[in-house]
Amino acid sequence: MPHEQIWQPLAEELNRWNHAGRTATFWLRDDDAVEPTAQLDRLLRLTGTFAIPTVLAVIPACTDEALADRLITEPHISVAVHGWSHENHAPADEKKQELGPHRLRQIILTELATALARMQQLHGQRLIPMLVPPWNRIDSGLLPDLGALGFETLSVYGPATPSPIRMLNSTIDLMDWHGTSGCHDHSLLVHGIVVQLQQAFEDGGDGVGLLTHHLVHDERAWTFLERLFETTLRHAACKWRSAGDIMAGSAA
């Protein structure tokens, strides 16, 4: 499919929002940050060039001051808590989980409290009180206790479901984990974004939550991000917002 034709459905959907006098919301979450790397630098340059607010889901047990120092000059970056150590505790015949029902509940809650405290110490005001479970999975029995630990929002992947804690989910994943392990076909990603926008247009939801993993991006992933930023930022009916602003219900 020709390059321009791939992106035409998104332009048409944003035109519909514009004609209705409405603005579509996009936000970006990138998972598995630990330390400064060439891939992280590339993400920071790209999102910084286009002024895209980005939340990095950082693994608390595996990170230190090096990452915090690297982010000092990146005002468009916030950080969230990506579990504790991103360690799988599920048996081999189940999907991977760190925060599943495979360990004592109090052990998990203690780890999450430690994780939040460590991230506050390292990142201060850059931290938002968002929990991003590794592999986007968490035992629902833990949700009622997250608020008491200090978390205000839970972010997994897929449609939001009824929950005792505010949910702000990613809805479009760039990576084809079960196929090529590279970036999804660009036309499929654009179609997915258009479907998300159509749903948000009808129900007033949180719009499009883009999920990326800078450490495993191929060139097609980087190319897609750049073109998406170019396409959306030049359209009056689109706004990239920070996760913190969406959590706070800010219209800014």
UniProtKB/TrEMBL annotation:
<dbReference type="InterPro" id="IPR011330">
    <property type="entry name" value="Glyco_hydro/deAcase_b/a-brl"/>
</dbReference>
<dbReference type="GO" id="GO:0005975">
    <property type="term" value="P:carbohydrate metabolic process"/>
</dbReference>
<dbReference type="InterPro" id="IPR049591">
    <property type="entry name" value="CE4_u4-like"/>
</dbReference>
<protein>
    <submittedName>
        <fullName>Polysaccharide deacetylase</fullName>
    </submittedName>
</protein>
